[in-house]
Batch of 2 targets.
Target 1
Amino acid sequence: MLRFSFHSPNPNHPSAKTLDPSPVFRSVKTFAPATVANLGPGFDFLGCAVDGLGDVITLSVDPGVAPGKIVISSISGAPKLSHNPLRNCAGIAAIEIMRKLGVRSVGLSLSLEKGLPLGSGLGSSAASAAAAAVAVDALFGSTLTAHDLVLAGLESEAKVSGYHADNIGPAILGGFVLIRSYEPFEILPLNFPADRDLVFVLVSPDFEAPTKKMREALPAEVGMKEHIRNSSQAAALVAAVLQGDARVLGSALSSDVIVEPKRAPLIPGMAAVKVAAMEAGAFGCTISGAGPTVVAVIDGEQQGKEIGDRMVEAFLVNGGLRAKATVSKLDRVGARVISSSNQ
Ligand code: HSE
């Protein structure tokens, strides 16, 4: 099993060699996927990437920008986001990578296309940070490790969303990622077998659930009974991922007795949406990240469509919320370069 530990010395790290690298491209375009954090009992330590949804970044060398600096030249799909790179999750991650690389001689401009709604529980801030981190690294020749990229993204997450890597880890690496420890920082990618099917039904209601507010709803302490229950289900979840068992994975992610009971009442209709998903045949259902998106899992795309329709209907009838369903598979790649140019 691959593992990334904060303390592993990396002889290929650019800081061990030259600083102020030259760009190898004039511009690069990157994509980073949406992520589902927590997966029920994996609160703050487990997440996975899902395909089809995500953010795109175009990053260019710009002689009009002061050397060593970055500007955000355009943002589409999210009018509320700041163009100040110090207050934008893509900008913060990009600056962090520029700092790690020691970029001093060229200025950069970044353009962000938001494919993910803000505050939706789909790792929107992490997708922007991941796409930005990979873009800066790629522009200068892709010398950094995945671990470096995740840590840069975590800096960004800590400033805009909270100190948790269960979105940024899988947004960078793809697949399932377990955050084993924050001090020291250590993550373990978990391989869901390639010959097994896993389908996510993501239902996003027209409702805002800011992560900060949803974290404030959590208990400061938990009882021993709940601790045992959640630990055993989290362990089952990890085993199910490694065995490619969508049925056990679903029942484990459905069994959180600590976080979901506190957050579900803050999302109108959530309890009924979960019942609708299970009655329609889902293996399990819970809140995606901090919500309000609700995620159900199954092992076939056709059933996924039917389950999504039932969940959308339940949001409308029981929560008075319009919602949109997306059926996605696991994204096994994570943040990636989709094109590069020297023009
Ligand atoms: N683990 C975080 C939370 C994820 O649930 O607060 C936020 O996307």
Target 2
Amino acid sequence: MLPFTALAHPNIAFIKYWGNRSDALRLPANGSISMNLDGLETRTTVQFDPLLPADVVKINGRLAGSASRLRVVRMLDELRALASFRHCARVESLNDFPTGTGIASSASAFAALALAASRSAGLYLEQASLSRLARHGSGSACRSIPAGFVEWFAGTADADSYAVSIAPPGHWDLVDCIALISAEHKTTGSTEGHALAATSPLQSARLADAPRRLEFCRRAILERDFALFAGIVEEDSNLMHAVMMTSRPPLFYWQPATLAVMQAVRAARAAGLPVCSTVDAGPNVHVICPAAASQEAVALVENIPGVRQVRLAKVGGPARLVEDPPRPLH
Ligand code: PMV
């Protein structure tokens, strides 16, 4: 069977996914909205081979550890069942952004894997099915399948929980200036974090208000209304972190520098710079602004003590095949 290589970008959520209705299926407790991050990518090659005795999974040139390998093998198993064969596969995945920067790679990794592995299995999955498949590996990976600005519908069951593009990359020239901040401790991974979300008494309030935040964020993106966008993005991030900090046990992802960057961004916005911030399950701050403000945004945060580096990412395209013109995804 032929090898296929796919690439996918990570994404940054503006309305965040935190907590599952089903941990096994990664069915989210709420819908979410994100943008893909151009200039950061995972490239994954997959080849099913009838002569191979076991799946071989390499990540960044090394054999994957048992937990990562198991997540990959589960996705391969799902495809083997769909394609009705039992061949093992060789999987090689490379990130062009260094691991350890705290830029999560599971979204781009499982999006690229879903596309490369399904094609190598001889399956042409349409975009919604591909997004659903990627979701099984890592929830946020379903949002790295479609292009540009993306919404993941929580759905009611496995079949209708997938992501679609709500606007193409060229729709709005937003830039993510990622302030990389070192973590003192290894943080709790998102899979364990989602399982704790329901232990916070604040999660029910966060979920009850999610439809309003989704609507405001969708409207802000479609109308390119940065003031509306900035307010709702920061509110949503703070709500997620309030849930994290009040879960049992509590999760604290912010470092002092995280808060320093958030405060600098708020002050700059009050002074007229179109800029806002959002933080995932780690200490890095994603500083979002229109391209015209990106130089000022970088200057604002790069010298804050604790900021190691600032990486810029524009709005990225969809997961796609490399060296083989992709079929248009619907
Ligand atoms: O896809 P996961 O399980 O890595 O969860 C992602 C969780 C956040 O990054 C914190 C929020 C999000 O919506 O991306």
